[in-house]
Amino acid sequence: MSDNLAQSASAERSTGQAMLRGALGRCPACGEGRLFSSFLKVADHCPACGEALHHQRADDGPAYLTILLVSHLGAPLLLACYIAWRPSAMTMIYTFGAGAIILSLLLLPRIKGAMVGLQWARRMHGFGASATRPGS
Fold first, then answer.
1. pLDDT digits (tens, 9 = 90+) for 22-36
2. pTM of the entire structure?
3. Where are the domains of the chain?
């Protein structure tokens, strides 16, 4: 039994797979349970496999990356639209304001999930501290 625990504790975790599972809103360990208990709140434990997820420390990282991506996608598009069609200032404000809000709301949970998956795969912030899971 202790060999089994040592093997699972030292087993390699696929970073890409864990980040993809997290970006899809699934547990980075099993890919079955929901990662979030609400829009951006990470569940304390996976409902499917029991993996402890409360160790995550995404903090402001997902917000910074979301702002970076939305602004880098929006600025060239805004310039191209202005040069091509010369819309009014209010049209630009409304359309690009709404676009930035919608894109931010779509990207933020995916980036946060991917960041939690990265932390789990790399055993950061206590994710690799124990090989046991609740209920095991």
1. 999 999 999 999 999
2. 0.85
3. 14-121
